[in-house]
Amino acid sequence: MVRTETVTRTVAEIATETLSYPSSLRAAAEAGGLLIGSFADETSLKDDLFRSTLTREFNCLTASISWGQIHGEDYEDPDTIVKFASEHQMKVTGHALISRLDVPAWVSPQISTSELQQAMRKYIHDDVAHYRGKVHRWIVVNEAVDDEGLRKTIILEKLGEDYIAEAFRLAHEADPSALLFYNDYDAEAAGGYQKVKSDRVYELVKKLVKDGVPIHGVGLQMHLFVVEYPKPEDIAANVRRLAALGLKVSITEMDVRVKDVPLDMNERLEMQRRVYHDVIAACIKEEGFMGVTFWGFTDAHSWINDVGQGPDYPLLFDENYQPKPAYWGVMDALLGR
């Protein structure tokens, strides 16, 4: 993998030299009452530098606790992650109870409606009850909407659209103290090319609220490209209208890709810094905004590379755990600069 090697000073060195900067993103976020987090899995937690940077820079952690992974019985890996978070005073987001990309292989077209409904009820109850009081927030339903309406999945086909409300009610019964979120991608902005989908997500959660479903927030994934991303003011308008429903809003999976820009690396990383800064700064100004979670924080552990779409450099730290310009863009946004 090509190494960026554009920043050589550590966070601590820069913070020492520039006394106006806090010692970490975590310190800056907590001063503003915000959550700042990263996705982590059992593989990345085996990396000593990953662990130490994670606990220094972030106060929340997203763990994969999904139906396709757990099957209602194997909690060894997520237990390790949740325990790690507790030991370092980090809040946990469980991702995701019902997701179109992560259902057990036995959920096939041959399954009956009653079998699927009973299985879903047991799985949600068991998962959420297992982590009762330990998971601060659940992504209850993930990516259930597309530009045409509710996404056609086997769960929708078998259970109908009421499965969404039922999933929230089941999760709330299992842990009334947990925050429950709907989460989606390409629905971050109330205008521009994302308007159709973001409007559909808004109407979905508006109906859930109206029907008394225990939904507490909406997650905006925010997988962006430096050359094509929503206008920050349109993202802010979306946060504002969701908050007006009484919902919290978070960025839940942010990264910013730079690979396909025909510029040198320093120019690409400066563009990336601006995207991170401008988007987060716009959201922070809105009431109801809880904070931002990145889908990893170092280019050494990026899902984009893992699924063969790299190499890319979408995160805040390079492969050597050195802070990139994006790091300081986020820091400045947290500080209102």
Helix percentage range: 40-55%
**Which ranges are low-confidence, i.e. pLDDT below 50, for 5 or more consecutive residues?**
1-9
CATH class bucket: Alpha Beta
Distance between the termini: 33 Å
CATH architecture: Alpha-Beta Barrel
What is the average per-residue confidence, as pLDDT, rounded to a whole number?
92
Tertiary shape: globular
The helix/strand series, from N terminus to C terminus, equals HHEHEHHEHEEEHHEHEEHEHEHH
**Strand order, largest beta sheet:** 1-2-3-4-7-8-10-11
Estimated structural class: alpha/beta
Radius of gyration: 20 Å
Beta content: 15-25%
Largest sheet: 8 strands, parallel, barrel
* CATH-defined fold name: TIM Barrel
CATH superfamily: Glycosidases
